[in-house]
């Protein structure tokens, strides 16, 4: 097989590079409030990071880089520093954003896979994980590697979370392999639509999973909050649709109710959650069980893996090449813009 070979290798190998990100990270010593910025996949990464930052008492929020570019004065006055996320460190919007932030006296910090990138050179400091780079148009390994790096940074001073992240790295290899086998099964027959449900630390993961299906397979995929899904999208579900619930133990009562209700509309349901989420029993559908651990909101690097494999298998089975997604480039570069 030649179609999708590079993306497949990136997804399959990502567990092996996660330890690199853990080694790079130190404490995130930025003045607060902190604004996390990114575009596309990096925006969804920013959403997860900001939520986890709030979990450990940091004043952090996330936004697309476009918001800062379009309203720099209004946004800059609400923050003391900006955390800029970009795999390549060359995306035009993120470079505009760092110029706008520095011009308004905000501290800047970059996180990238390219240590010699313009973004890293321009910001006041940063971390890079070269081993996490996908070297493909579609971001897969880079998302999880950068997320783990930032989780490690946010968990400074939280030994129980640090220990959990260590277990994630230690156990990830076999789980990544198991996720591919499940994704292969879930895409037989091909779904009509993919709905991914996630809240809190899983909201950005859900959005990222939907984007992977759009990018690789050009298929209909949507992300919703579990409870919000009942408001409108619920009525469009058919037996041909696949639903993925990204569960968290803190939310399991509400999430389980959604899964049970959905069972009357489609039997194509899979829940990605730690063992504790399933402890009451009687939850219908397939399951991809993450290792039992406290603080399961920190397991985003692993929770996203099944979604990446779903996008890849959906693409291959519909005759598309994930290595060459339609009308996409690895870096979005724009010709001009207001950066004053």
Describe the structure.
The chain is α/β, with parallel strands linked by helices and 340 residues long. The chain folds into 2 domains: 5-160, 3-Layer(aba) Sandwich (Rossmann fold); 172-317, Glucose-6-phosphate isomerase like protein, domain 1 (Rossmann fold, 3-Layer(aba) Sandwich). Helix content is 44%, strand content 14%. The chain has a 5-stranded parallel β-sheet, sandwiched between helices. A 5-stranded parallel β-sheet has the order 7-6-8-9-10, with helices on both faces. Helix 5 (92-103) links the parallel strand 3 and strand 4 (107-112). The radius of gyration is 19 Å and the shape is globular. It starts with a helix and ends in a 23-residue tail after the last helix.
Which secondary structure elements does this structure contain, and how are they paired or packed?
Elements: H1 5-24, E1 34-38, H2 41-55, E2 60-64, H3 65-70, H4 72-76, E3 81-85, H5 92-103, E4 107-112, H6 118-122, E5 126-128, H7 141-154, H8 159-186, E6 194-197, H9 203-217, E7 221-224, E8 242-246, H10 252-262, E9 269-274, E10 286-290, H11 300-317
Parallel strand pairs: 1-2, 1-3, 3-4, 4-5, 6-7, 6-8, 8-9, 9-10
Helix pairs in contact: 1-7, 1-8, 2-7, 2-9, 7-11, 8-11, 9-11
């Amino acid at each position: 097989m030649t179609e999708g070979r590079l993306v497949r290798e990136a997804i399959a190998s990502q567990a092996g590079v996660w330890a690199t990100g853990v080694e790079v990270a130190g404490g995130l010593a930025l003045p607060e409030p902190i604004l996390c910025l990114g575009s596309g996949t990096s925006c969804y990464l920013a959403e997860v990071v900001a939520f986890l930052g709030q979990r450990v008492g940091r004043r952090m929020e996330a936004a697309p880089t476009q918001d800062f570019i379009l309203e720099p004065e209004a946004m800059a006055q609400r923050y003391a520093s900006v955390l800029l996320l970009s795999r390549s460190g060359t995306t035009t919007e993120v470079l505009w954003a760092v110029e706008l932030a520095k011009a308004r006296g905000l501290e800047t910090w970059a996180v990238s896979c390219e240590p010699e990138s313009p973004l890293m050179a321009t910001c006041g400091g940063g971390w890079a994980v070269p081993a996490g780079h996908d070297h493909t148009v579609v971001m897969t390994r880079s998302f999880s590697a950068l997320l783990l790096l930032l989780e490690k940074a946010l968990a400074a001073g939280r030994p129980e979370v640090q220990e959990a992240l260590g277990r994630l790295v230690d156990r990830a290899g076999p789980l990544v392999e198991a996720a591919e086998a499940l994704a292969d099964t879930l895409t037989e027959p091909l779904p009509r639509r993919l709905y991914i449900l996630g809240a809190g630390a899983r909201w950005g993961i859900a959005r990222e999973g939907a984007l992977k299906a759009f990018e690789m397979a050009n298929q209909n995929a949507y992300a919703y909050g579990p409870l919000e899904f009942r408001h409108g999208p619920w009525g469009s579900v058919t037996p041909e649709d696949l639903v993925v619930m990204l569960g968290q133990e803190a939310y399991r009562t509400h999430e389980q109710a959604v899964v049970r209700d959905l069972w009357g509309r489609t039997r194509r349901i899979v829940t990605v959650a730690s063992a504790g989420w399933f402890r009451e029993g009687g939850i219908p559908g397939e399951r991809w069980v993450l290792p039992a651990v406290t603080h399961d909101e920190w397991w985003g690097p692993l929770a996203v893996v099944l979604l990446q494999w779903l996008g890849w298998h959906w693409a291959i089975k519909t005759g598309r090449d994930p290595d060459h997604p339609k009308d996409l480039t690895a870096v979005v570069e724009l010709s001009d813009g207001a950066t004053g």
